[in-house]
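Board notes (copied after class):
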Amino acid sequence: MELGSVATFNLYPDLYARFRPSYPEELYDWLLQLCPGRGRAWDCATGSGQTAVRLGESFARVDATDISSSQLSAAEPHNQVYYRECPAEVTPFDDDCFDLICVSQALHWFHLPSFWPEMQRVLKPGGIFAAWGYHHCVVSPEIDRACSVLWSIIEPFWSSRCQLLWDDFRGSGCPLPLLKAPSFTISSDWTLDHFLGFLNTTSASKLCKQALGESILDDSCQRITRAWGPRSQVRRVDLPLHVMVARKDGAAALIG
């Protein structure tokens, strides 16, 4: 992971944990059908543990790692989840020990030439590797237009690494045979405060405010507020997912 990204995710870890969306149950159900077993999973770059906690409901043990101690300090505890401060590219895990390895909203930050051999080493034969993430959100035409002002302000602060995610992980160099994944979308019912909290905790928003001042996004947030309507109104927010899934040894036919 590049150094700047570490500093970014050390900013406001409590807010990050509060406003990050949960991933769709349909995604987990599909991955679980592909897995050779449910003994052990690795949630790599776990952040505040959203994915790890969900995997803890299905696996006997989940190892959840991150290089940010601040993120881990805000992670949700779970009896089956074991958190550890650890880089993605060098781990203490045994060979061939994981049925499933997940990377949610983070693969683009990794040093992939070092990560891929480590992933292959610790994934069981027949095991599943999955990476996913989101970019822009969709609410309504009026709100989406108001959001475009905010996106234009923070655009220079997106890392060039994010292009890998936006390109559906094409060019990632994943060494395993890819499986065809269905389309998945995060659909959340949010109030205005939750939506603004989400927008203000993206990596680009945090870096923008750090560079230009905390108030730099105030005008664009006010535009969104006017478009939203009553502050307590709940609206559906959709975040289409970019998903990449592969199986070690290519033991399965394409799914989709």
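Comment from the instructor: The first strand starts at residue 40 and ends at 44. DSSP finds eleven helices and eight strands in the chain.
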